[in-house]
Amino acid sequence: MSMSTRKAVGLELTMVLGMDSVHICGRVSGIYGPVPDERILRNIFRDAEPAKIDILTQSTEGCTFRARFERNRSYLSHVRDVDVRLERAGGKCRIVAVLQQLAYGQLPELVPGTYAFGTATAEDGLEVDFWVTEHVRDAVLLESIWQELDDNARSRLVCLVVDAVKKLQQLDMDAKRTRYELWTTPYMDFLSGVRAARDRRRPTSRVRTCEDGLEGIDVTSAVPDLVPVNISRSELTSLQEQVVLCHNDLEPRNILVQRGRAGHGYKLAAIVGWDKAGFFPFAYEYCVKDALLGSENSSFSWYALFKQQTACLVPRDSANTRLIRAMNLIYQSRKVASTSLGALAQDKWIQRRGLARHPDVRVGWTRPADGKPPKDIQ
User: Which positions ≥6 away from 332 have C-beta within 8 Å?
Assistant: First the structure.
């Protein structure tokens, strides 16, 4: 694919590999990252020719596509469908692949396995990283069926997700491989994640490490009414000792379910979307839920059930309480200063449901005072 073709706006792609027509269900625009061309596909699949390519998602970083193979031309001798992620070389794709593979070691029945990872060259010379993973068949996003579930079915699925969280936390952090991967990710300690939560374009909060290294860190806000939070050195040490593998984006849009036997109910099929995964105290992931409600998650019932069932995983000590307060300060600072449509829409979503912050920072958002459950967005 030529550079001029890559920059063409709204160009629908159709490719021919050998004698098979390959239709890419997507469009290429100058704002998007790399998409599969014939040379990339040859680099990834070698002698196996996919019969069809469907682009599932596109972004500025790259795309995810599904490759489907004929029965007599299957991938790896037995695999007929795979999902492939493409990104410009040197991005976060490799890190996400490593973290997902660690998660697969803990949850092989719920985390898609990795078939291959490498670098390919597009026809225009662009270097891309590719990541080939297992395709979960006959599954749908939990987000698409959540509204049709009754309370018992919802609670049961959340319970299964929480069980998965507990298994992730059993990853041996002292194992040689785990320690190696820990130090090769950008989240080598939870403080990296705290700093990453700030708005880089127009900082509204600051994380400062005291020069003598003895007094911990101070998290302050540019918003005068927000009280600074100090996390002492001993509390930092305690939090570092509580670091576990966290997904950090366990929302219905990242959870796949399948119909149960004879079509009765749904069962948990897979957990996907490991882009935000890293090594943190679980309090970090627990607190992120508050910031995502009304934006990346539009279901209060999911939020409330997850918070209720995971509260026991957050130790009730000063270290975790101050970490949650620090994260809340960062997110509140960002919201006060933001004029984006997304932030305004999130505020409206919260207001329409009459939600309010509980005095206990661990609880997060709570139901209206009249006791009526807030409505989820349909």
Answer: 221, 223, 226
Number of CB atoms found within 10 A of residue 263's CB: 7
Cα–Cα nearest to 235, from 204, 190, 198: 190
Distance between CA atoms of residues 208 and 62, nearest Å: 34
| Domain layout of the chain by residue ranges | 8-134, 140-366
CB 169 within 8 A of CB 245: yes
- Summarize pLDDT for 192-227 with one digit per residue, the tens: 555 555 545 455 555 565 544 556 788 888 878 888
Query: Model confidence over 58-87: pLDDT tens digits?
Result: 988 899 999 999 876 767 777 889 999 999
Where do we find the tokens 């990283």? 129
Q: E strands of 180-231, at which residues?
A: 205-209, 217-221, 229-231
C-alpha dihedral over 57, 376, 285, 266, to 10 degrees? -70
Percent of the chain at pLDDT > 70 equals 78
Q: What is the DSSP string of 239-292?
A: HHHTEEEE-S---GGGEEEEE-GGG-SEEEEEE---TT-EEEEHHHHHHHHHHH
**178: amino acid identity, one letter:** T
Tokens of 337: 């200063």
Q: Please list the alpha-helical segments (H only) found in the chain.
A: 3-6, 38-45, 93-106, 142-145, 151-168, 176-184, 190-196, 233-241, 282-292, 300-310, 318-337, 341-352
Phi and psi (nearest 5°) for 322? -70, -35
Q: Which CATH superfamily is domain 8-134 in?
A: Phosphorylase Kinase; domain 1 (3.30.200.20)
Distance between CA atoms of residues 132 and 106, nearest Å = 19
pTM > 0.85: yes or no:
no
13-59: per-residue pLDDT in tens?
A: 333 333 333 333 333 434 678 899 999 999 999 878 899 999 998 98
The CATH classification of domain 140-366, taken from the options 3.30.70, 3.90.1200, 2.60.60, 1.10.10: 3.90.1200
